[in-house]
Amino acid sequence: MLRLLAASVKRPCLGSSRRLESSRLDYDGRVNRRRDEEAPVSQAAQGYLLTLRSMAGAGQQPRTAALARRMGVSTQAASEMINRLVHDGLVEVQGDRELLLTPAGRSAADTIFRRHSLLEWLLTRVIGLGWAESDEEAMRLQGALSPRVEESIARLLGDPPTCPHGNPISEHAARTRPAGILLSQAEAGELTIYRITEEAEEDAELLAYLEQAGLVPGALATLVELSTSRDTLTLDGPRGRSMLGLRPAGLIRVLPGRADRSLFHQVPKSLRGLQP
Questions:
Q1: Residue 9 exposed, middle or buried by CB count within 10 Å (0-12, 13-18, 19+)
Q2: Three-state SS across 75-97?
Q3: Peptide bond into 12 cis (omega under 30)
Q4: pTM confidence score
Q5: Disulfide: which of 64, 142, 191, 214 matches 238 by Cβ 3.0-4.6 Å?
């Protein structure tokens, strides 16, 4: 049950689909480098590739122990999966033990993220599922999409540049969109919710809280108070007053004042009308 005070949200709390429910490996084999003839990558391997992509995008230097903590698995389980991904040419281990996606690994991770994002748009804006539920369903479905269906869904949705949480889908979008600032470092006053970062997406309870409070990309809010002594901040948002711990607030990016509305994708109105 969702707690009303999101300050109590703790990590790792990977209630979403990206948390592995056991340390058992389920790797389906080699990824074909030709995008239109991809061999399946297991859901477990997809989770590792996406997490390495997210950590690299956040400027972190992932190593096996940090990756295991982020994934919510043992270091041994993470090491075994990394060895498989290295064998298949998707990950490199540097001399200082830093983990890097190879060009093939980055391409695979980008493809997985794009398919996942498109499915989340479809499931949330068209079908009407909540954020946390759509994440789980998208993880189940993304491996079954062909490139043809992927492109058709993208056209149907108006080719969104971000996922529903505001994270850039492509490198071009990442380069051309503003970075925003961390909510935990924002000054008091009016602001616009800009991005729910990929690390925040991994916490299903936090996602549900933000969605319930209306603190979604494009939403206007007012930062009323930030208290380091209480480790919380207070926001007046679209659905009233909300409180967040500074740690989860550090996983959310905002823009000061009223942001340009063109930064926030909207699916075609004809599709929005299909929600039950």
A1: buried
A2: HHHHHHHHHHHHHCCCEEECCCC
A3: yes
A4: 0.79
A5: 214
